[in-house]
Amino acid sequence: MNQVTVGSYLAQRLEEVGVRDYFAIPGDFTLSLLDELLKNPRLKMINCCNELNAGYAADGYAREKGVAALVLTFAVGGLSAVNAVAGAYAEDLPIIVVSGGPNVNSLMENRVLHHTLARSEEGYRFVLSAYKEITAHAVVIREASTAAFRIDEAIRIALRARKPVYIEIACNLADALISRPNTLSLLPTRKSDPGSLKKALEHVSTFLNGSRQPVLVAGSRLRMGNAIGEFEAMASKCGYGVACMPNAKGFFPETNSQFMGIYWGSASSPGCREVVESSDAYLFAGPIFSDYTTVGFSALIQPARLVEASPEHILVEGQVYHGIVLSEFLTGLAAKLKVNPTSLKSYQRIKETAHVTPAAAPKELALTTRRLFHHINECLDGTTTVVAETGDSWFNGMDLHLPDGCRFEIQMQYGSIGWSVGAFLGLAAANPERRVIGLIGDGSFQMTAQEVSTFLRYNYSGVIFLMNNGAYTIEVMIHDGPYNILQNWNYAAMVKTMKGQSTILSHVVRTEKELVAALKKSKNFKGLTFIEVVLDRTDCNKALLGWGTAVANYNADKGKAVG
Question: What are φ and ψ of residue 141, in 5° steps?
Fold first, then answer.
């Protein structure tokens, strides 16, 4: 009674850290492990169509739940998921990747096995080597005596670093007996260094209180630092104008009177860029300054005016402070900042009043992206989560005005086309009480469409808007060519063939009138609503035009390149 199997031990630890569902693809090296995981009635296995999609689903699940689990077979499964796991690493999402591995005896006997490179002299470490590059920790368990410690260590690192980890368990150890899990908290309990925190707070508060027009900008790594609530509380105390970087949309309430919009260089919300870049002090909390978030590094952020508060350090006036927990820093700073609404008043003077389209009867004219997103915005409420695929959906998504409680997910740092279909599944699995809305381009959908089948298999509820314009629109705007043209599918008919015993509403809409009719049918529908929206190939958000040009110019810059 004091012993459990290695697989049961792993299952209990996953349950303890908040995992309720795990995404899996069976394979011979993993079957015994899956048998042990299935013995835990509080964990649910979600069978995906392939490993890449399962990895994307785990990405979406981790965004909602804070942690996810992905179970794969050795090599052919693990390597198929590498792209999704790398994306989770870039996006600071803890995914516990578990792989069945070769029998311990095969290693000792130096045997050549299937799913390997047919080289016995180097063993089976090539998968481990690959995962070491894209995880915070990668380990192979080949002794039952060390399994408990290694599992606990890997999970603890994933939660502390907010990154994926890789655990490979030899297939003949899955049902090996080890001691029962002891009471142990694997959740991180990091505290700030008191001296470093005190000096950072003094320096930053003096800098901001001495400025004329300070602003706050939310970045995507606020989630990694578990500091979204603390950022909002600080903003409320100081009264500054607040903007969000594009990959942090939704991290600050858009109904809040202090919200100025999305700061995205030349693609910013009207009036937002002018206020942020003209300010004499700006605090960016959890930013990632990449070519995508800065529009080809064209954003005009001056280092002398910048306070960068990240999970790793605080930077102000060239001084770096380490050993500080971001949430503690923001809470401490809120108590020290003077109220200064100057930047907010500046924004209110220059902002463009949003154009409100008067209600009118739906027309028979061809549907435009602008009108489509007007109707999508009307579908949003506090129980909605929006998933915006890489591409034009990024830019149209930025224009959505999110009601309180509505969430917005985007994979901007890694930008893997096809991510959204799996993430759509993962978000729905993580919280079936929320309604997930996917904004997905046809090119992206063609890469990962199989996972609609899984969504239907488990009877989740959500809406997919499939933008059918026959091309990779974001690539067209960066650099066009014949490689951006797609083979058109009959998308709405295709997804119907996946439904099995599930219920689905599937429509093709070409006019606003048809769209309104489809949305009316889907309003109270429990299941998947799939709306294929036929659009013109060049009908894209105007912000994408300038963004694509800036990124293309940066990509083409030869700089000091030789040759």
Answer: -105, 115
Residue 268, both tokens: 């910013």
How many other C-beta atoms lie within 10 A of the C-beta of residue 159? 20
**How does residue 297 score in pLDDT terms, banded at 50, 70 and 90?**
confident
In angstroms, rounded to a whole number, what is the distance separating the alpha carbons of residues 65 and 44?
14
Q: C-alpha distances in angstroms, 503 versus 336, 371, 437, 461, 526?
A: 55, 28, 17, 10, 8
Residue 84 is predicted with a pLDDT of 98
User: What is the residue whose two structure tokens read 């459990």?
Assistant: 4
Separation of alpha carbons 90 and 415, rounded Å? 10
Helices within 363-506 (DSSP H only): 369-379, 392-398, 419-430, 442-448, 451-457, 473-478, 491-496
Ramachandran category for residue 67: left, alpha or beta (phi over 0 → left; psi -120 to 50 → alpha): beta
What is the Cα–Cα distance from 146 to 131, expressed in whole angstroms?
Answer: 20
The torsion angle over the Cα atoms of residues 474, 480, 486 and 492, rounded to 10 degrees, is: 30
Residue 275 region, left (φ>0) first, then alpha (ψ -120 to 50), else beta?
Answer: alpha
CA distance 455 to 221: 29
Residue type at position 129: S
Burial of residue 103 (number of CB atoms within 10 Å: 0-12, 13-18, 19+): middle
Positions of E strands within 142-200 = 165-170, 177-179
The answer, yes or no, to whether residue 563 has pLDDT greater than 50, is no
- Alpha-carbon distances of 271 from 260, 293, 356, 495, rounded to whole Å: 8, 17, 17, 42
CB 219 within 8 A of CB 287: yes
Bridge partners of 306, per DSSP, are: 282
Over the stretch 85-144, which tens digit does the pLDDT of each residue have?
999 999 999 999 999 998 887 776 677 777 777 776 566 789 999 999 999 999 999 999
